[in-house]
Design brief:
By secondary structure, this protein is an alpha/beta fold. It contains 21 helices and five strands. The protein is globular, with a radius of gyration of 21 Å. The chain starts with a strand and ends in an 8-residue tail after the last helix.
Length: about 400
């Protein structure tokens, strides 16, 4: 059962929320705190899986409360509600809140945010993994692409096409812009699954503010990466995988989901490289020397693999479920339950086909032939692997 703490400074708001949420009593263990001080007392008494807080409260506001939660309970999902925070203010709060929802909040939207954010939390993942995900305020972008974006945004001729071409080459910037676009503060309630659609929904002004004023995007700078890890090569391979999914899928909506998911399918490697560099280097070295699959060694040491770690981060950030699932199951697609060749299958196939035998960082992955056989595409996919031209399915 998911433990949820709701925080507001108005008694009638909390009572109304409690009444509206009665149907979730069997799924959520709910507590209600009147103000930030009461919330802190509750969390000191017993932790929560999710904290949902109002923004505007006297004394310590919701942003400050969630920052306190981030530092002391990094494993907790943090959701902020506000009816008055503008877009600029909302962007400033993105590093402390996993998701930003408008107030009054649609109950079904709140349900998805709580269930998706807490639902992917692995029962076997090590505490240090939960802490890394909870403390993570952003990911580093490739300096080359970051500065390309800064220069492009300075041009009077910049538009959604030219800006999206740069952003969709970088997994950190892709994840962040999709997070913004899927927040109720910035766009419509519909799922936004492609960088181009995200920028169209957000507008260039919001992207400029995120990059130039609020620093939601940042260059890698002085972050020390583990030995043998190359962000440039990781992103080149991910971009190749994204391109491959476009060649496989006939459905335009599937292509949007698969392209972004393929670009982000190995983002868990970057999370580990930034948050647990020693463990990341040790596991990769074990995989090279033993020949065992990398994701199995990650699960052995960390309780989960890079696919699950990346998917959990994306779920926390509120990205669409279909995209999150394609990332989560790209090594083990049979677990997805999908019965057609869609985004999840395409990302799985692309992750294998994008293996670069000339790159010592790129570790080989294997097709789930039983899954491909189940979908009736085994011969087609093996034909692609042997060099036959792609045909969209």
């Amino acid at each position: 059962m998911i433990k949820v703490l709701f925080v507001d400074d108005e008694v009638d708001v909390l009572e109304g929320l409690e009444n509206r949420l009665r149907k979730y009593v069997g799924r959520w263990q709910m507590r209600f705190a009147l103000g930030a001080d009461a919330a802190i007392k509750e969390l000191r008494r017993d932790s929560a899986d999710v904290v949902v807080s109002d923004m505007r409260m006297p004394g310590m506001d919701g942003g400050q409360l969630l920052d306190w939660v981030r530092e002391r309970h990094p494993e907790t999902v943090r959701i902020l509600l506000s009816g008055q925070t503008g877009a600029d203010g909302a962007m400033k709060l993105m590093p402390v809140a996993h998701q930003l929802l408008t107030k009054p909040c649609d109950i079904e939207l709140l349900e998805r945010a709580i269930d998706c954010g807490a639902g992917l939390q692995g029962s076997r993942e090590r505490p240090e993994v939960s802490q890394v995900l909870g403390l993570l305020q952003g990911l580093p972008a490739l300096p080359r692409l970051y500065w390309d974006l800064v220069r492009e945004l300075d041009k009077p001729s910049a538009d959604s096409t030219s800006v999206s071409k740069i952003i969709e080459q970088d997994m950190a910037m892709t994840a962040r812009v999709l997070q913004m676009a899927n927040s109720a503060f910035f766009a419509s309630a519909r799922s936004v699954r492609s960088v181009r659609d995200a920028i169209t929904a957000l507008g260039l002004q919001a992207i400029r503010a995120a990059v130039l004023q609020l620093h939601l995007f940042r260059a890698m700078g002085d972050i020390a990466m583990p030995r043998g890890f190359s962000l440039e090569k990781l992103q080149t391979r991910s971009l190749h995988a994204a391109w491959l999914t476009n060649q496989m899928l006939a459905n335009p909506e599937d292509r949007k989901t698969a392209y972004s998911a393929a670009m982000l399918h190995d983002v868990g490697y970057l999370v580990l490289a930034v948050g647990l560099p020693e463990a990341s280097a040790r596991i990769r070295e074990r995989a090279r020397s033993s020949g065992e699959p990398l994701h199995k060694l990650e699960t052995e040491e960390l309780g989960c693999d890079h696919a699950q770690i990346g998917a959990r981060m994306l779920a926390l950030w509120g990205l669409p479920v279909a995209l999150v699932e394609a990332v989560a199951f790209h090594n083990e697609p049979m677990r997805s339950g999908d019965t057609r060749f869609g985004a999840t299958a395409a990302v799985h196939v692309a992750s294998v086909l994008s293996y670069d035998k000339n790159d010592p960082q790129s570790l080989p992955e294997a097709f789930d032939l039983e899954y491909l056989r189940h979908l009736g595409v085994e011969e087609t996919v093996l034909g692609w692997q042997s060099g036959q031209p792609f045909s969209r399915i």
